[in-house]
Amino acid sequence: MYTVKALEPQLNDDPQALFAIVRDDDALVGNFYRHEHAEIACTALNQTQATTEGNTTHE
Question: How many domains would you assign to the chain?
C-alpha cells in the first residue's frame, strides 16, 4: 500500500515538494507540492494495486 507523508521544509529559497508518496517499505514513489494532489495520486496507486492483486491468478 501507498501512503502520503509530510516532508520537513528545508531552510532555503529553492522550490520544494512538501508531500511524498511512499510504499510500505519506505521507498519514495513521488513528490508533490499540494496535499490534495498527493492524496489523489495515492488513492489511484492503491486502487491500481488492489485491482492488480485481484486479477492475479495463482497456479
Answer: 1
What is the domain range of residue 26? 2-55
Per the listing, cell 494495486 goes with 49
Question: Which H or E run includes 11?
Answer: none
Please report, for residues 8, 50, 57, the alpha-carbon distance to residue 41 in angstroms, rounded to integers and kept in the order given.
20, 14, 26
pLDDT for res 16:
85
Query: All 3 cell numbers of residue 21?
Result: 508518496
Beta bridge partners of 25: none
Percent of the chain with pLDDT over 70: 93
